[in-house]
Amino acid sequence: MALLVYTDGACKGNPGPGGWAWFEPTSLAYDSGGEALTTNQRMELAAVLHALESHAGDLTIRSDSTYVVNCFRQSWWKKWEVNGFKTSKGDAVANSDLWRPLLAEALHAGRSVTFEWVKGHSRDPHNNRVDALAQEAANRFR
């Protein structure tokens, strides 16, 4: 059975001070961090990457980031890998320095990782918790 982990990223300005967090509701374990100058997308990716690196075994990542979830649901990563991390226009894939290790952990580490989308700022208490953790982390870099 896969362990459920929520992830979120936050940014105060875009770019600006940012924070990332993951939260595991079963044990109430969590971690967070951030950067002084970053983007919301980078913090969403950092949250997932840190969650993957912090948990061995099968995972379900629940995120309010369509950027993250759609990469896996729509298999964007397949074209990126075939094209050497270039877009169809020949540009470098944005945030490939985070996507590459994230994909290695999610797809090629000998475990099952699934991604689920959850509406942000809604009635999901676990998503609200991880959002608060990411916001707190971003505030530490203001």
How would you summarize this macromolecular structure in one to three sentences?
The protein has helices spanning 40-54, 66-73, 76-82, 96-107, 125-139, and strands spanning 3-11, 16-24, 29-38, 59-63, 113-117.
Give an overview in words:
- It is a single chain.
- By secondary structure, the chain is α/β, with parallel strands linked by helices.
- The chain has one domain: Nucleotidyltransferase, domain 5 (2-Layer Sandwich), CATH 3.30.420.
- 40% of the residues lie in helices and 27% in strands.
- Strands 3-2-1-4-5 form a five-stranded mixed sheet, with helices on both faces.
- β2 (16-24) and β3 form a beta hairpin.
- The longest helix is centred in the N-terminal third of the chain and has 15 residues, at 40-54.
- The chain starts with a strand and ends with a helix.
Q: Which key phrases capture this entry?
A:
single chain; 142 residues; alpha/beta; Nucleotidyltransferase, domain 5; 40% helix
Question: How do the strands and helices of this protein lay out in sequence?
Answer:
Elements: E1 3-11, E2 16-24, E3 29-38, H1 40-54, E4 59-63, H2 66-73, H3 76-82, H4 96-107, E5 113-117, H5 125-139
Parallel strand pairs: 1-4, 4-5
Antiparallel strand pairs: 1-2, 2-3
Helix pairs in contact: 1-4
